[in-house]
Amino acid sequence: MTQPPRTPGRAGPPRRASAGQARVPSGRAASAHPAPGRTGSGRAPGAARRTTAPQPNRFTSRATLLGLVLGALLLAYAYPVRIYLEQQSRIAALRASQAAQQSRINQKADDAAKWDDPAYQAAQATQTLQMVPPGSTSYIFNRSTPSTPASQDPGTAATHPAGPWYGQLWSSVQAADKPQAAP
Q: CA 3 to CA 150: how far, in whole Å?
């Protein structure tokens, strides 16, 4: 019996495909591909060992270089972005302050416009300075001073002159000009 010529790296005669294996198309030998699910215990002595391909590096030099460039860009842009965000918050705070100042300016302008009205001027003079137009009678109700009890002598009680502030000032000047009685 003659044996077929041996090819390098092959041990033993060619194997036939079993019923569960698919036939290899295009004239390839069935033994060129090992059967799936076989373990190494059924190998013939001297058969070639199946080796596994080396695992590729997780990070190639290109990926590492790309990561370093992206990290450098991130660090380079971090500071300017932080400055930009601080400036935006400061601008927002200044705009809010400007709006508050503008509302105060508008309120002061409205108050100043009121003083152009002669009726408002007369009302303020009457209210704050207790001035009245000539020929008018002014009535002042002072609720803060208690009334003098009937049992007390009106001459012994300290008198507070009622009236406008300038009247009180003049009465205090007159009281200061009076000579003091010697005891």
A: 153
- Cα–Cα distances in Å, from 92 out to 36, 55, 81, 99, 102? 70, 55, 17, 11, 15
- Does the pTM surpass 0.90? The reply is no
For 15-43, the pLDDT digits (tens) are 555 555 555 555 555 455 555 555 555 56
In eight-state DSSP terms, residue 155 is: T
Residue 91 has pLDDT above 90, yes or no: yes
Q: What pLDDT digit, counting tens, does each position of 103-146 carry? A: 999 999 999 999 999 999 988 988 888 888 888 888 877 777 56
> 155 pLDDT exceeds 90?
no
- Rounded distance, CA 75 to CA 67, Å? 12
Q: Note whether 162 and 140 are within 8 A (CB).
A: yes
Closest CA to 140 of 149, 127, 150: 127
Residue 163: both structure tokens together: 């009236």
Q: Write the DSSP string, 74-140.
A: HHHHHHHHHHHHHHHHHHHHHHHHHHHHHHHHHHHHHHHHHTTSHHHHHHHHHHHS----TT-----
Q: Which residues contact 140 (CB under 8 A, 6 or more apart)?
A: 130, 162, 163, 164
